[in-house]
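In the design runs reported in the main text, the only information available to the sequence generator was the tokenized backbone. The following block is the verbatim input for one such run; it is reproduced so that readers can re-run the procedure and compare outputs position by position.
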């Protein structure tokens, strides 16, 4: 049985759709694998960020995209937040948005 990818809200999906084509294509390949094989693909595709939060690591010649996600019952992957990375380290502000949304998902979905 396949996994399902859903988005926290339409803004998260729009953010990913606005990524440069190369990064978006890599994201699409990773998300297709996640649907078939589940969310735990491991490096270089996904990475655990702690306490149930994970990131999709999408790269293209235009740069690096990150999409944070968590999993919930019934084999669902919720994409919580997405951004284009501009520095080596993931900005704390981006992590906080994802953690806040994950708490909301786990509490209310």
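Verbatim output:
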């Amino acid at each position: 049985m396949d996994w399902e990818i859903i988005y926290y809200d339409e803004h998260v999906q729009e953010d990913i759709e606005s990524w440069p084509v190369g990064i978006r294509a890599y994201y699409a390949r990773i998300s297709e694998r996640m649907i078939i094989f589940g969310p735990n693909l491991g490096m270089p595709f996904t990475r655990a960020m702690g306490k149930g939060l994970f990131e999709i690591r999408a790269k293209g010649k235009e740069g690096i995209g990150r999409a944070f996600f968590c999993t919930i019952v019934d084999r669902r992957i919720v994409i919580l937040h997405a951004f284009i990375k501009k520095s080596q380290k993931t900005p704390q502000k981006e992590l906080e948005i994802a953690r806040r949304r994950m708490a909301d998902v786990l509490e209310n979905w």
